[in-house]
Write a structure and sequence with these properties.
Layout (H helix, E strand, L loop, with lengths): L4 H5 L1 E3 H8 L3 H9 L6 E2 L5 E4 L2 H13 L4 H8 L10 H28 L14 H4 L26
Antiparallel strand pairs: 1-3, 2-3
Length: 159
């Protein structure tokens, strides 16, 4: 799509977006192919991005560092307006969803850290402690894997 001269001044080149975010031009093209960001074309056919895409790309990079896959990031970004620069309120709504998930992950990791040297509820029964903490592999009733590290406890077996 051709960008008008007035809009063109509010837009930035792919090189400028790359320079501001530290992301390679090829990665920006990939994000565009994946529907995470979009560009318009100027009269010369060059891609132009909104200045607000600096923030979108930065959000993508941060979310990826937290382990979010691109399909989840795409879904979250779809809640942001495409026709205008997202406001602080828009970003606050988006970040509150992410914050909730991160808080859950932090809690789970702290629990894993604190219980790493104890029974993990894996059913190995190879340690003397397993006879105390997980007799007869009762933790298996809670599901597969290291149940106590995944958030369950022996109290869950009492129900």
């Amino acid at each position: 799509m051709k960008v008008s001269a007035m809009n063109d001044k509010a837009m930035i080149s792919i090189g400028k977006l790359s320079g501001r975010t530290g992301l390679a031009v090829s990665a920006i093209r990939y994000y565009e192919e994946q529907g995470l960001i979009s560009s318009e074309r100027n009269a010369g056919g060059q891609r132009r991005f909104r200045k607000s895409d600096i923030r979108r790309v930065s959000f993508i990079l941060i979310a990826q560092k937290f382990g979010y896959p691109l399909n989840v990031i795409r879904h979250e970004l779809s809640a942001l307006p495409q026709s205008r620069t997202p406001t602080k309120a828009d970003w606050t709504r988006l970040s509150s969803k992410i914050r909730k998930t991160l808080d859950q992950r932090i809690e789970q990791m702290q629990q894993m850290r604190d219980n790493l040297d104890g029974c993990i509820g894996c059913g190995c029964l190879s340690l003397q402690k397993c006879k105390l903490y997980n007799p007869d592999d009762k933790a298996a009733k809670l599901g597969k894997g290291p149940r106590y590290l995944l958030g369950n406890s022996a109290k869950d077996l009492e129900d």
